[in-house]
Design a protein that fits this description.
CATH topology of the largest domain: Rossmann fold
Shape: elongated
Number of domains: 2
Order of helices and strands: EHEHEHHEHEHHEEEEEHEEHHHEEHH
CATH architecture of the largest domain: 3-Layer(aba) Sandwich
Radius of gyration: 25 Å
Structural class: alpha/beta
Largest sheet: 5 strands, parallel
Helix content: 25-40%
């Protein structure tokens, strides 16, 4: 652990909000002579980022990085994850989890570029994000010094944060002075809401919680029909129009929002050991997920699909826990990407009041054989008498166990 005087330059993941604005000044006060560099990422959170630049300038920051990472985020992080149909604990599409390694990666790249010897983040000591940030830091730069203010300072309440801000002339918007009813994290894939009014899992979330979707009950009483084209497991076109990864997800978000798609209210197991309740909205990602699964259904070999599905919970857990840059995730990704080679074609869907309904799928690589599955005359494509031997062979061990008096 470096002493305060030995930290020369630190790259801070900076949003411009109350927490990171306080952290910026706290770093300047706590590490005298240390230069703070700010990095603000546009991951599609839907907020204006220029105010963050102005606040950093007011705080005396000389090196300010604000970058649009929406395309990289969707292409290099979301898309590989979607090829795996990754769901944490069966429901969570990992919207926050998949964003952290990209932010942390860029912090390290900036640290290398500007000669910084430390990085800092605003994640608390109770959550998963501290783990996700720091595992990435260490995976990419093993000797980096990490400063996690929430684990070491004494500003343990919002009141103390505001007092610190006022003492150091940090501007605070009027609507930020009161206690927020819940916390929100958002990017192009999803929004997540946690804390305060959501902490009691029996209480229904108030309407104000929902950021990205209208209520399914209030969605239009009409069907929206769309088609998505896939190439090797990735969506490449919507309704026949070729789009970039980020542009396609943006369009799917609009469609999902208008049809009340993608709401999840869950209690999950955090990596640090506690359970937490959150409300997640993943409108476009939900449509993407359903369409991808439909595309796989006619193009993937049965055993390949089943093996990938057996490994999916492990893969999802690695992402949730922050191991995106771990060798085992890379190994699983190579296998998953190989499985996606034939996953090309078109899926047709209907969107209606929170539902994503598959109505058709076609592919030049289809393994579906009408000759074999038809109930009509199959012209000898399948000999039904062969099933008897197949069944008897599979029943052999069951018959032997029963003959020996074993029932379980």
């Amino acid at each position: 652990m470096k002493g305060k005087g030995s930290v020369k330059k630190v790259v801070l993941a900076y949003s411009g909000g109350l927490d990171t604005s306080v952290i910026l000044r706290w770093l300047q006060v706590t590490y005298p002579g240390c230069e703070v560099v700010t990095f603000t990422a546009d991951l599609g959170q839907g907020e204006e980022l220029e105010p963050a630049r102005k606040k950093a300038e007011m705080a005396g920051v000389k090196e300010i990085f604000i970058e649009d990472l929406r395309e990289e985020f969707t292409r290099d992080f979301v898309a590989p994850m979607m090829r795996a149909n990754a769901l944490y604990e069966g429901v969570y599409l990992l919207g926050t989890s998949i964003a952290r390694p990209l932010i942390a990666k860029r912090q390290i790249e900036i640290a290398n570029a500007v000669g910084a010897d430390a990085v800092s983040h605003g994640a608390t000591g109770k959550g998963n994000d501290q783990v996700r940030f720091e595992l990435t830091y260490y995976a990419l730069k093993p000797d980096i010094h990490v400063i996690a203010p929430w684990r070491i300072w004494d500003l343990e309440s919002r009141t103390k944060l505001i007092e610190f801000a006022e003492k150091h002339q940090i501007p605070i918007a009027k609507d930020k002075r009161g206690e927020a009813p819940f916390s929100v994290d958002a990017n192009l894939l999803h929004s997540s809401s946690e804390g305060k009014v959501l902490e009691e899992p029996w209480e229904e979330p108030p309407d104000i919680v929902y950021q990205r979707t209208i209520s399914p009950m209030e969605a239009p009483d009409r069907v929206t029909e769309i088609s998505i084209d896939f190439e090797r497991g990735d969506p490449v076109a919507l309704n026949g129009e070729t789009l970039s990864y980020a542009a396609l997800l943006t369009r799917l978000n609009e469609l999902g929002r208008a049809n009340g798609i993608g709401r999840v209210d869950l209690v999950e197991n955090r990596f640090v050991g506690m359970k937490s309740r959150g409300v997640y909205e993943t409108p476009g990602g939900t449509i993407w997920h359903v369409a991808h699964r439909a595309m796989e259904s006619i193009t993937m070999d049965r055993e390949v699909m089943h093996l990938r599905d057996e490994l999916m919970p492990r893969y999802a857990k690695l992402i949730y826990n922050g191991f995106w840059f771990a060798p085992e995730r890379r190994m699983l990704q190579a296998m998953i990407d190989q499985s996606q080679e034939p996953v090309s074609g078109t899926v047709r869907l209907k969107l209606y009041k929170g539902n994503v309904i598959v109505t058709g799928r076609k592919s030049p690589n289809s393994l579906y054989s009408l000759r074999h599955v038809t109930f009509e005359e199959d012209a000898g494509a399948y000999n039904q008498a062969d099933a008897e031997g197949f069944i008897r062979l599979n029943a052999l061990r069951l018959r032997l166990a029963a003959a020996g008096g074993r029932r379980n």
